Amino acid sequence: MSLIVQKFGGTSVADTTRILAAARKAIRAAKEGHQVVMVLSAMGKTTDALIKQAREITERPSPREMDMLMSTGEQITISLMAIALESLGYKAVSYTGTQIGILTDNAHTKARIQSISTEKMRRSLNEGKIVIAAGFQGVDDEGNVTTLGRGGSDTTAVALAAALAADACEIYTDVDGVYTTDPRLVPEARQVDRISYDEMLELASLGAGVMHNRSIEFAKKYNVPVVVRNSGSDAPGSWIVPTPESPTQPVCGAAVARKEARITVVGVPDRPGVAMMLFSRIADAKIPLDMIVQNISSDGRTDISFTVLDDDVSQTLEIARSVVQTVGAESVDADRSVAKVSVVGLGMETQTGVAQKMFHALGDRGINISMITTSEIKISTLVTQESAGEALRVVHEAFNLHVRPTDALGPVELSPQVRASEDRLEGEYLSRLTGMEDIIIESVTLDQSQARLTLAQVPDTPGLAEKIFDRIAQEKLVVDMIVQSVGRNGSASISYTVPRAAYEQAMRLAEEIAQTYGAAPPSGNPKIAKVMVRGTGLRSHTGLASRIFRVLGDAGINVSIISTSERSINITVSEDNGEKARHLISKEFTKEIL
Ligand code: ADP
Ligand code: ASP
Ligand code: MG
């Protein structure tokens, strides 16, 4: 018998009328012959209200008690839903995370799922009941209630779908599906019929609030077809599946993360191991970092900048300040007025000029970019919060995201083939995971084809990246990685990689650019090695980058550029260290490599 998981978000269960409407959706699926598991969020803004109440008492309530408090929101909805279904003449049973046995680690407020016991749910389903599970919550091995992080009900839903080998996971929300960007911010945004796991994971992790990023990790790992639909209509929605909408479009969507902050550790002694200490302390606190950029400096010191969620700023500053003292760096500063605007697309991997197009769109409107990082399938830029809305709109327009690509694939027909897709990971492999959310690494490889160029002390003006990368494109240089950040005294430092064969040409050009802008003479390395770690959910597993830094730091290997995404972490080191770095990293991840 087929089994469907239906998840309803806060707005979709905000009042009695909507609870009844959701109940009818479940009943319809049951009447069509499916077994149905519902996963529910707290009603409306209940979670926000609970958090506010706690904060009225103290700024830093203990995470354990916050989980106790927040988990009550979902418990209200599930019991009301069971009452609704029973009143409509259907058999139903509600379960909390603890009752089902959603076992998590003990990282309160950001716990990860380790296992799910399906026995109780199966028994209830076989008794003809609709099962109603509380989203967002679990229990650790000592019986403490945990929660999965804001928006975590999506993750509960996809995880249950994975554990029950459901035929599909339907996410009911307040928009018609997945759009090319947030339709509330950009009215021209277009709803897509489908999007790939990799793209959705990246977009979600970069700020597209429609799905909790970790839910897509589950979907990809366990090959769960997910469809995002409007709870207030019967529109077909958007499917999240292995293949992208179009095989040729470079960019499939754009996202903004408004509540971002930039932290800069100034004057860090440039020796192996220093960055490692900083990042591993932050990782230990389970704070996710993004956009890590080191400004290479001439005086033997560097500035390390990175972004964190605004909520994590005070904790991150505390950690950074203690590291500053230990390693003898100069100071730490934080800028809380920034936002991150990113574009994502699998097509970027094979097409050039995507970054340049983005910088161009922003530069043309005079929007200043204070940081840039790229990976194979995404480009992120840091701008001011005031300019973020406009930045998102102009980038959306520049990539014509409102227009459906001519070769776009149509809606997904849910057939057995969808589930049995080629991307499905082998059950045998998954059974080796101790926890369902454990990290998976596909490969660690070495790329010895690149050279690095660095422009330092470039006066920071709007449109700088645009002008530089336009000039580089005119010379038909293919740029791979790009990192830029504004460091001490407001000057920018930009590093990028090009094919080794183009190094001489690239260096001449860099000299010309440096002269034009009154920057310091460029530096570079004609032969760098790039070590690429590929997997799923790499950025959100906070400890990963720090493990890489640790093994390299211990071996005295300096990292010049790092780029992170959910699908890969790439680092560059000097050529003679390449093979050693690849080996050390592979060894470090032996357990996790597929
Ligand atoms: P729920 O409570 O149902 O989980 P959320 O508020 O978490 O709903 O997610 C739905 C919201 O996500 C939409 O109202 C929309 O504003 C926002 N959103 C952000 N990015 C996107 C996107 N790319 N596509 C669709 N919605 C998006
Ligand atoms: N109620 C939780 C929250 O608001 C979980 C969720 O809605 O997904 O974050
Ligand atoms: Mg949500």
Which key terms come to mind for this protein?
594 residues; Carbamate kinase; binds aspartic acid; binds adenosine-5'-diphosphate; alpha+beta; 34% helix; globular; twelve-stranded antiparallel sheet; binds magnesium ion; 24 strands
How would you describe this protein?
The two termini are 32 Å apart. α9 (274-284) packs antiparallel against α10 (313-327) and α11 (354-364) crosses α15 (464-474). The protein is of the alpha+beta class. The chain contains 18 helices and 24 strands. Residues 420-426 have low confidence and may be disordered. The protein is globular, with a radius of gyration of 24 Å. The structure holds adenosine-5'-diphosphate, aspartic acid (ASP) and magnesium ion (MG). Aspartic acid binds at residues 9-10, 41-42, 47, 73, 135-136, 150-153.
Task: Provide a quick synopsis of the model.
With about 600 residues, the protein is α+β, with helices and mostly antiparallel strands. The strands form 4 sheets. A 12-stranded antiparallel beta sheet has the order 14-15-13-16-18-17-20-21-19-22-24-23. It has an 8-stranded mixed beta sheet with strand order 3-6-2-1-9-11-12-10, with helices on both faces.
